[in-house]
Amino acid sequence: MKSTYGTRASICAHFSWTLDYLENQIPWSKVIRMMADLPSYDYDESTDTQTKKGVKITEQNADDILKMFKS
Q1: Is residue 14, in this structure, part of any structural domain at all?
Q2: Domain for residue 27, yes or no?
Q3: For a designed S-S bond to 1, which of 6, 45, 54, 60 qualifies (C-beta 3.0 to 4.6 A apart)?
Q4: What is the C-alpha separation between 10 and 18, in angstroms, rounded?
């Protein structure tokens, strides 16, 4: 969505707004702040998610991890 209309369309789709509402009913500065505060996610598939979080589950530590979740 690199064009102006693509960006506006994706904003409308995300917030379930109409284009008229986006362009005429809400200040653009508020939209920019809302977009800046949206959560972002890292979808890098090349990294191992277990080691990225710092814990790798093995047979030796599986019981300890299970106890941690139950407590």
Answers
A1: yes
A2: yes
A3: 6
A4: 11
d(CA 65, CA 11): 41
Cα angle, residue 42 at apex, residues 28 and 46 outer, rounded to 5°: 150
Instruction: Give the chain's domain count.
Output: 1
- Domain for residue 43, yes or no? no
Supply 6's token pair.
């693509």
Residue 24, both tokens? 């005429």
The contacts of residue 65 (CB under 8 Å, 6+ apart) are 55, 57
Predicted TM-score (pTM) of the model is 0.49
pLDDT tens string 9-59:
888 988 899 999 999 999 999 998 888 887 776 666 655 554 456 667 788
Structural domain that includes position 8: 1-38
Q: Specify the higher pLDDT residue, 6 or 18.
A: 18
Please state the separation of Cα 49 from the chain's center in Å: 16
Is the residue at 65 inside a domain?
A: no
